[in-house]
Specification:
alpha+beta; single chain; three-stranded antiparallel sheet; globular; 2 helices
Length: about 90
Amino acid sequence: MQSSGNHIRLHLAKASYLTRQSMKNLQALLDPRRFLRVHRNAIVNLDHVEEFHLPPHGNMFVKLNDGLCLPLRKANRALLRKLLKRHFVA
């Protein structure tokens, strides 16, 4: 899910849809154990994450299984660690 002006573009399988909603409102509707807001304009489904990459210098990235790479805010790294422990240990 990526914000696009006053809309959010939902990427589902091979299609995408536009909805008029704020990221904050949409995030409140989602299961916080399965969805992570990686950036102010992007939310990802953890089931579709291929890898998290932290280069020696620079920002951390989230790579989705469709090849898309998104930046991960520093503020979300601790939350990400907690979610991954729950997601993969459970």
